[in-house]
Amino acid sequence: MRTSIGERLLDLAVSGVLWGFRILLVAGILIGTIATVRAGKYTSEQWIDFVVFGISQGSIYALIALGYTMVYGILRMINFAHGDIFMTGAFAGYFLATWLNGTGFIDNNPVLGLVIPILFAMIVAGGIAMLVERIAYRPLRGAPRLVPLISAIGASFFLEYAFRGFFGPGVYAYPPIKALEGEWNILGIAVLKVQVVVAIAAFIMMAILYYIVMFTKVGKAMRAVSESKDTAALMGIDVNRIIVSTFALGAAMAGAAGVLYSLIYRQVGFFMGFTPGIKAFTAAVLGGIGNIPGAMVGGLVLGIFESVGPSLFLEGLGIPRPYQLKDAIAFTMLVMILLFRPSGILGERITTKKA
Amino acid sequence: MKRLFTLISLLVLASMVLAACGPSAAPAYECTDALGCVTIAPAEPVHIAYWGVLSGADASLGEDSKRGVEIAIDDMGGKVLDHDILLTTEDGGCTPEGGATAAAKLASDTSLVGLIGSSCSDETVGGIAAITNAGLTTISPSNTRPVLTSPDRGPDYAGYARTAHSDAFQGKAVAEFAYNFLKVTKAATLHDGSAYAQALQQVFADEFVKLGGTIVAQEAVAKDATDMKPVLTTIAAAGPELFYYPVFVAVGGFVTAQIRDVAGLEDVKIIGSDGIFTADLLKGGGANTKGMYLSSPDFSAFTGDYAGFIAKHKAKYGGSTLSTFHAHAYDATNILFAALEKVAVVEADGTIYVPRTALREAIFATKDFKGVTGTLSCSPSGDCGAPVIAVYEIMDSDPASWDPTSATAPNPKKIYP
């Protein structure tokens, strides 16, 4: 079909504006970065610290983002209650760890003291996610796409305020684990033990998940359902069962992330899932929603940018109090990625579009 | 047509008769107050409300003040002018938006006589216009942002007074403590974007420079930030000897818990203010809170019967006080009731009329009021507090040990002045 000259000019103008925006953003980051580096305020150890802080925060984002991306991949639905599933995991881990701490178990068996609350949190979070799926999502499976979205927001509020009702509006302190206090010297760099452990634990979890999805029967079935529910059903796959296990698996990751998050930040409260949930959703979109390695990459990139960004380029641009704009960096990045690569860093892995 | 006419005239006649038989002695009191009057029928309670932060990380600040209000009501025997007192609450969540929502609800309730609140300066910034325009007056026990009671605060604040100190005093006291007592010359500050923290750290910075010190960094984070290590690394790069973060509990807990992990800040002296003067800081901040300084109203400088207040508090709630402004709330409530008793018009049958402008003026005219926190007199712009600031040191990081008023083992313990 031929387009008129007017339409072509408009297209040109629009893409010109978009390119201008892209160039402006990149130039801003470059100028800020150069200015900061030339000012020489930070030592190289401090830059490494910024990156390490970013990796530990980013690996938690990545773990939560996996749940968003898996559910999206299979149902084309954003599970907005996922951040609160993360919170339920943190609470479960907190209560078990506090009890174990009271008996002296954690001090005597630091490894088990770490692993058992994580496993418990994964089970609780997985269980709650299965309930949420059964009650709030499954009855709406055939409804228009907005309907389950609203139901998800409702489920999110329900979980937040149910926990507030049970455990009060205040915060709880996760018991300190003595074995995780202090620093390790890795290749001449002093890194906090807790951050190393959290990052390693997160990577192990992600490796396990990747193995399940790529190399087991359930994983194969998940991928089949994600391609086409109807065809998968014809092949003898129990679609409902697979959807439930997807929810449970994603939630287990979020539950583990809840405990890891509490290890670093030490506070557990009913509203703690909101911001990490939104950030992890951003990470999932950054990496390419529906794409599991993408969620991991997106989480890490977001965590590192949030940590490094304010001091790297905002300070160089002469912006006062740059850390107030940490969230702005996260969402500007989202806009940038969507401008440069609308399908995310690693691309959406969706074979057939479903309207 | 004729029938209709008869019917109407009958109705008119009937209504006239009924009107004549009605309570003909009714309006003896004619309300001439510019903002109108609250009418309280003989069997109705006198309705006041407390608004402040009752949920989230800072709930202890609001809950603490609410207890002060409740103790004041108990001391009245639950009655004022022979009417029961009804206390309701609204949660402002320590944010401007939450304050605006709470204020809108309160403004729509015409049975309200007066208000105590809010907890956080942000809530007042968001909600005060609605409250003033509804003809209500609120007395805050814990807002400390200086501008709220400055003479040029604007007409929206006509219905606002406070018994808390202004941070013009607190910031100055902390600066003097740092420069004269700790003998440090390089300080850094951090705020969480709240109206309270922003203003307080600025007052501190200005006073500290006036004394001869240097401010090496002034940073800020968002109120929901959790990862403080990057911003603390930036502060470490500036090399402060003292780090002042007069923030709220959420940010305060995260900063305290993470500060010693940042290279360069292992030994920096840390100080917070009244916003984190609560056992919740120990829960969030953990072991690092030991040895931390906190500024707060000086409990030992209260001229009223503070020991008696604490005894009532122990008897009613058990345990220690939750934050620092319970006594200020107690005084605020008593100022409200004293003003109410002064201006209320009581009919023989027990009906009460409260003219709103007169009540507001009576509150602002409070003079030499003997309160727990001191002898209080309100300025024309609503400053009723008797501010004496002290600095306390946290002796033990166990939340269960929190008891600043204990005679034997106070935690935190007053160290200055």
| Spatial separation of the terminal alpha carbons of chain B | 91 Å
Given the helix and strand composition of chain B, which structural class is it? alpha/beta
| Rounded radius of gyration of chain A (Å) | 22 Å
What count of helical segments of chain A does DSSP give? 13
Task: Note the main sheet of chain A.
Answer: 2 strands, antiparallel
Mind telling me the CATH class of chain A?
A: Mainly Alpha
SSE series of chain B: HEEHEEHEHEEHEHEHEHEHEHHEEHEEEE
Arrangement of strands in the largest sheet of chain B: 9-8-10-11-12-17-18
Q: Write out the CATH superfamily name of the largest domain in chain B.
A: Response regulator
Largest sheet geometry of chain B = 7 strands, mixed
CATH architecture label of the largest domain in chain B: 3-Layer(aba) Sandwich
C-alpha Rg of chain B, in Å?
Answer: 25 Å
Multimeric organization: heterodimer
Uncertain stretches of 5 or more adjacent residues of chain A: 351-355
Could you please say which CATH topology of chain A applies here?
ABC transporter involved in vitamin B12 uptake, BtuC
Number of domains of chain A: 1
